[in-house]
Specification:
Elements (H helix, E strand, L loop, with lengths): L1 E5 L4 H12 L3 E6 L7 H10 L4 E4 L5 H10 L2 E6 L6 H6 L1 H22 L3 E7 L22 H17 L6 E7 L1 E3 L18 H10 L5 E4 L11 E2 L1 E3 H14 L5 E6 L5 E2 H12 L5 E4 L14 H7 L7 H14 L8
Parallel strand pairs: 1-2, 1-4, 2-3, 4-5, 5-6, 6-11, 7-10, 8-13
Antiparallel strand pairs: 9-12
Helix pairs in contact: 1-2, 1-8, 3-5, 5-6, 7-9, 7-11, 9-11
Bound molecules: UDP-4-deoxy-4-formamido-beta-L-arabinopyranose.
């Protein structure tokens, strides 16, 4: 049976498409291409030999969703479509609530009306807010401090409530830590519009010469080298986690699982690893802390191992190797084809 991936032409979505096609599943990408490039579909075909079906549509369009779910005989949905910039969510909060919360509600309504029961939802570790303790376990309190994080938390809540409704869905909520890297072919990868907000794509652009220097936001955090610590997870591992989640979707009504490695890496450690991967020096300058940043967070990966039978297989060196391989082969991202 077919799996619909909303936002399937995006960075994480395209890697999930590859993983699902390799696992023998049929895939339909539902995407409005507001933050992704149609060339991605061609690259998925080059990697797997199979081009996914594509429906260009907005996740708030219930009728279009119903039509796509029915026409393609979907048995499950992986829901990634959404806006994801913490910084933008402050100035564009209305758009973020409309897309991330209303969009999720519209998708759930379309699923209820077509009898598609299983949904895997792309949430974020941002829902935890400032950690009370580390590693972050799934029962940690939720206290997001950005509109983006609150939209993810509210989307989780509405799906959890619908799971208990008279027209229930089976819901697996995956809380991503920091997805990075790219498929080993270098044909698909992270290609943010404009100047990257996130660390790894910013380092990649410095390495390829599109940006002059990396600003390290704060070196006075209470961490071993003073810079921020995060749980970076290879996007190919993250994609495999979604396949595992699909297989668990009908075992219980609501499941919330971290997708992370369980290990933290500092900014300076990542810069060093990337320099080793690309054979270049990454020029840096220390800048003030970025508003809203947390000193350190990383996942407890225990539940993912016990319930999904999933754990991250790739380490920081592979993440940097593959991120550089993508950037080296696509200096201007998907605009290069
Ligand atoms: C990582 C570290 C920065 C850029 C965000 C979202 C989160 C998720 C992943 C969607 C921090 C430092 C960064 C730079 C730097 N997105 N940094 N210079 O902030 O952990 O998470 O992206 O789900 O929701 O919040 O990731 O890559 O932006 O930052 O020093 O130019 O790198 O201070 O310590 P973050 P990031």
């Amino acid at each position: 049976m077919t799996v619909m991936i909303t936002g399937g032409a995006g960075f994480v979505g395209s890697h999930i498409c590859v993983e699902l096609i390799h696992a023998g599943r049929k895939v339909v990408v539902y995407d409005n291409f507001c933050n992704s490039h149609p060339e991605v579909i061609n690259r998925i075909r080059r990697i797997t030999g199979t081009a996914p079906e594509v429906v260009r549509g907005d996740v708030r369009d219930v009728e279009a969703l119903i039509s796509a779910l029915s026409a393609h005989g979907c048995s499950a949905v992986i829901h990634l479509a959404g806006l994801k910039s913490v910084a933008d969510s402050v100035s564009k909060s209305t758009e973020y609530y409309d897309c991330n919360v209303v969009g999720t509600l519209r998708l759930a309504q379309a699923m209820q009306q077509t009898g598609v029961r299983n949904i895997v939802f792309s949430s974020s570790a941002t829902v935890y807010g400032e950690p009370d303790m580390l590693p972050l376990r799934e029962d940690h309190k939720l206290a997001p401090f950005s509109p983006y994080g609150r939209t993810k938390m509210q989307a989780e809540e509405l799906l959890s409530d619908i799971a208990q409704s008279q027209s229930p869905l089976n819901v697996v909520i995956l809380r991503y830590f920091n997805p990075v890297g790219s498929h080993e072919s270098g044909l698909i990868g992270e290609d943010p519009n404009g100047i990257p907000n996130n660390l790894m794509p910013y380092i990649s652009r410095v390495a390829i010469g599109r940006l002059p220097v990396l600003n390290v936001y704060g070196n006075d955090y209470p961490t071993p080298d003073g810079t921020g610590i995060r749980d970076y997870v290879h996007v190919a591992d993250l994609a495999a986690g979604h396949v595992a989640a699909l297989d668990c979707a009908d075992k219980q009504r609501v499941l919330k699982v971290n997708l992370g490695t369980g290990r933290g890496t500092s900014v300076l450690e990542l810069v060093d690893a990337y320099a080793g991967a690309c054979g270049k020096t990454i020029p840096i300058t220390f800048a003030p802390r970025r508003a809203g940043d947390i000193a350190s967070y990383y996942a407890s990966a225990e539940l993912a191992a016990n319930v999904l039978g999933w754990h991250a297989k790739r380490g920081i060196a592979e993440m940097c190797r593959d991120a550089w391989n993508w950037q080296r082969k696509n200096p201007n991202g998907y605009l290069d084809q």
